[in-house]
Amino acid sequence: MTRPPTAAQRRVIEAADPGTGRLRGTEAQLAALVKRGLAFRHPRPPHDHFLTPAGHRIRQAPATEAAEAPPAAAPARKDDGVFAARVGGADEPPVTEPDRLREVRGAWAGLLELRRMTRPDGATDRLCDWERAHLVRAAALALEAAGHRPADAAGDGYRVRATPQPEAVAVYAPDAGALRAAAATLEAAGWQAGEYTEPRTRVRYLLASPRKV
User: Fold this and answer.
1) Pairing mode of beta strands 39-41, 49-51
2) Region Disordered: what ranges (predicted)?
């Protein structure tokens, strides 16, 4: 379970530029935030540090909530300190809807800012390096942020799964209409998606990959 940021780290996060997420602090403070997945170091000079989606989410949450909420009450799962979108499946824990909506919106806004800050042209219509390294979660976040619901125990909703292809994910939906809607959402979010049929089961699914241009 990822520990909440220290009081000093939270002060650095809260002092971030509200528009860009740019951080100011000591090298040790910034390095600690990077290690915890709350900040990233820009690859180009002057190598400033900026909030990741997880950092933006913490910045938007009330300080008392971040400091006092027990781990069991956390509405989102994390594995490496980064916000984890729901990929769909019966094994995912239940969430508190109002809190979840705020987290998803904050994570998506932070991700768009991450795209803008890491592209030379400032474009937000294509995936950033973090998304390319976490394709399943990135696709799930795009879907969840657009209002699609992840699959529950009954199987309703979307499911995002890894594929043998290094730069593609499979997206499943309960019917043809939901599948087309998911494709439209992903394409608007910087993906390219096409419908395919599994040879053995005849199940229709989307094969989605980051858009190149």
Assistant:
1) antiparallel
2) 1-24
Select from 104, 28, 25 the least CA-distant residue to 61: 104
The reply to whether 186 falls in a domain is yes
Q: Rounded CA gap, 12 and 9, in Å? A: 5
Tens digit of each residue's pLDDT (9 = 90 or more) over 67-104: 333 322 223 344 444 457 889 986 776 666 777 888 88
Structural domain that includes position 69? 7-210
The shares of helix, strand and coil residues in the chain, as percent rounded to the nearest 5, are: 40, 15, 45
Q: Is-above-0.70 flag for pTM?
A: no
Compute CA 90 distance to the chain's CA centroid, rounded to the nearest angstrom.
Answer: 20
Closest CA to 21 of 107, 103, 131: 107
- Residue 83 placed within a domain: yes
- Which residue type is seen at 127? L
- Establish if 32 belongs to a structural domain: yes
